[in-house]
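User: Hi! Is it possible to get a structure for several chains at once, not just one? Here's what I have:
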Amino acid sequence: MAKFNKLDQSDYYKLILRCVHCGFCLQSCPTYRVLGIEADSPRGRLYLTRAMVDKRIDIAKDVANHLYKCTMCANCEIACPSAVKYTDIMFITREIMAEANAVPLGAEQLVNTINNAKNIFMMDNTLRKDWVIYTGVEAPIKDKADMVYFVGCVTSYSGRIQGVAQAIASILNYVGEDWTLLKDEWCCGHPLKLEGATKEFKKVAEHNVKMIEETGATKVVSGCPGCCLALKKEYPEVLGRKLNFEVLHFSQILDEYIKKGKLKIPKFESKVTYHDPCELGRILGIINEPRRVIKSISDKFVEPIERGKEGFCCGGGGLLKVTDSQLSESIANKRLEMLIKTGAEVIISACPTCYQSLADATSRKNKALQVIDIAELIAQRLGLM
Amino acid sequence: MISDHILKELESIVGIDRLLRKKEELMVYECDGQTFFKSMPDVVVLPTSRDEVVNIVNICNKYNIPYLARGAGTALSGSAVPIRGGVVIAFARMNSILEVDFDNQRVVVEPYVTAPQITAVASEKGFFYAPDPASYTVSSIGGNIAHNAGGNHCLKYGVTTNHVLGLEMVLPNGDVLELGGKALDPPGYDLVGLMVGSEGTLGIVTKAVVRILRKPPATAVILAIFDSLVDASNTVSEVIAVGKLPAVIEFMDKYAIKAVESGVKACGLPLDAEAILLFEVDGFEDELDVQSEKIIEICKKNHARSVEMAKDPDGMAKLMAGRKAAFGSMGNLAPSYVVDDGTIPRSKLPEVMPIIRKWGEEHGFMIANVFHAGEGNLHPIILYDPRVEGKEQEALKLGLDILKLCLDVGGTITGEHGVGIEKAELMPVQYSKDELKRMLFIKEIFDPKGLCNPGKIFPEKEVKILAS
Ligand code: SF4
Ligand code: SF4
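Assistant: Yes, the chains can be modeled jointly so their relative placement is included. Here is the combined structure:
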């Protein structure tokens, strides 16, 4: 509450006031496109935020239900002609909501889970590397290395996505990279940031940065755009300092290997399309790298509509999976329709969450369509898995 | 307030998920694209079919509850503001394209379909849907019909009414009325024409048959930069006077340029220019060249500082980028604005533009102008800070003064945004008592109880006097 009073005339309020209520962002919003409800649109969420600051409505869970349905995909920012910094505003708003204990139950539980277990699944964190045993791939844990592979919770623990970790590890081995896993990797904390739990997020950031810096690595690679975003942009912000390592998504590494001729990959014959993960494409601006990788092995690459900077969310972003799983699924169905329209037989993703959302949507549809992660596809073509 | 048993009846039609009644859900429906007029509905329902709309209207009728239809809520005159509370029927879930009939160049749509959606299906065979108001990427066809929306291209292609041939409507008594159809120009009274532009006060559109046109084989865009408002204004009249109509003539003044150039959509327009004009010409290649040369010649004759032309899609998009971004970029200059929408005879542009500029300066407002110059459809945007006491009222008043100026020089009080709440008080200035009376007769025939989008177009006082 105090924060609102303090912020009344502040920069935060100015950011909110930039929204002139034109509605040009409506059609870019996945939640609005599915629900058609103004409170679940970018314009509506900004209006509610302003109403809370103006004390026209309370900071309450009922409002949070709408604010936390936002997948934080940032597509509205691309559509907005007034350059409203929607996600910046929402991160502050969510901090305020969290402080006021006005957060949807699912989001609150997730924070507790991460605080206690250091991962999003309430699993024993010492089992985080069990994927190495299951997949049988070689994955070193060294004191010192040039490169750290930051695996992330979803990839570490979710059965079929462990294949992505296997793929990344096997390609790093194949190229002869001096790399290591972290001795004690914690959740990257991005979900904490999404919830508004800044203090907890900072703790996690401190831990992971310490772990990474101890290895002396100059590069951190991850196959998860959420982890990349946390490590690359959100950690320096919350810690207030520059970090001593570069953060790369695995598609960037692949692109570099191919450019340098380190990988000779046999062509792939099926017709393929690519789904831009919001955090990778729009937010981190990594749009061309995965495309170059795909085009290097495929002559049958087709672009979907709503791609690149304007990529449509898979429904798995933000905390939507825990705040409204049904809506998350409806958005995934909608995205899948667009990808199916390309006529592709294989959908390539570069994010474990997108992979999950789209693969689940595919099985709901009973379609004989393959969803595969870019790392897995390359590892398979190289005969590494 | 609507009692619980009525809410239950509404819920039995749309179900719990498509009935909104909590404060935070309703509050966001209290205004449209312009936040000045605010009034919260008692309930919002999201129908998915015509039959649901019929049932909703029947309930409103039975219990005398005011209601209105809402599309994307991008209108700028308060026409979708539930001024007397009641039921907002939000159409966002009725967004399917029902039929594409290439042979007859017709598309049948539900009301929440957008223009780009129609063009996307039409372009498969080289067609497009012409009306393109500034909000066309998001605004609904239903809303476009309610306001008879125009757009950049209306100089050559006409406004919404020229492209809507048939309507399915739910009337205020709950009847379903089919008007027009796929054929052009049916005999008798033009009821489709009556409905288009009636701002949802005569009934609710649940389906529309629209016309698609063949895409012109070639297009070119010309951007001319001027150091004087008057020179730019004279150019517009002269270009039209030579007879060959460009598809688009758009005008941006220095504040509109400043708005665009201060934001993320900056595209390199010169900040020291007084005005720019954008022309789009289309047709067959050779015709295009002749026309473009003529336009360039007229611009130069009127002292254009520079004239640039592009024929390739990227180049054209680059020249048009500023215009596309202009409206939404106003947030770069001030947190709020009033957009007015008057028309004037084109020949009056050189006279009116400097007056608007002067009035703005006198009252301490920046007034940005970005508009469809070809039709003389002005959109003065009066920028203000709502946190400064009294500024909002003052901006609104200045807006009305500008509209009166439009009337004085022989124009109208609205080109395409509609009358809504904002301009209702100017209706008696624009029209004689007799004209207004006949309009109110029509309203009476369709909506004797006055429940269908009440409080719009006609000023309350006038309605009472004329009714007595
Ligand atoms: S960030 Fe994405 S989900 Fe959230 S309001 Fe914007 S477009 Fe909608
Ligand atoms: S966020 Fe931007 S696009 Fe959306 S309503 Fe506000 S100003 Fe318009």
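Chain B has 16 helices and 18 strands. The interface with chain A takes residues 20, 22-25, 27-29, 31, 33-35, 46, 72-74, 90, 92-93, 95, 112, 114, 135, 137-139, 263-265, 325-332, 335-337 of chain B (CB under 8 Å).

User: Great, thank you!
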